[in-house]
Amino acid sequence: MKRGIVGGLAALLTAGGLIAAAPPAGAGCLYGGPVLSKCDGPIQPDGTWQRCVAAPQLVPHGASSYLVPERRCDVMGPDQRPPDLGFADPPTHIDG
């Protein structure tokens, strides 16, 4: 019985290690630059997709201030007018 428990624990730890070593899921996202992240959802049948952008927002607090991430999502695609140039860069779908 002890061998079964030890063997099961070893298999569980091995599987956990493989999962922890896997690359992070970043398909469809860009990181860095003037924004924290820019991620695109799946392309819909009409050719549009949702883009979510997280950017730092300065929040004053007494004699100091701090940055808080602010997330904004909008629809992108053909015949869609982007809300602003920074949001729409790149103008095509981000593929991982």
Automatic annotation (TrEMBL):
<keyword id="KW-0732">Signal</keyword>
<protein>
    <recommendedName>
        <fullName>CDGP domain-containing protein</fullName>
    </recommendedName>
</protein>
<dbReference type="InterPro" id="IPR056271">
    <property type="entry name" value="CDGP_dom"/>
</dbReference>
<feature type="region of interest" description="Disordered">
    <location>
        <begin position="74"/>
        <end position="96"/>
    </location>
</feature>
<feature type="domain" description="CDGP">
    <location>
        <begin position="28"/>
        <end position="95"/>
    </location>
</feature>
<dbReference type="Pfam" id="PF24238">
    <property type="entry name" value="CDGP"/>
</dbReference>
<feature type="signal peptide">
    <location>
        <begin position="1"/>
        <end position="27"/>
    </location>
</feature>
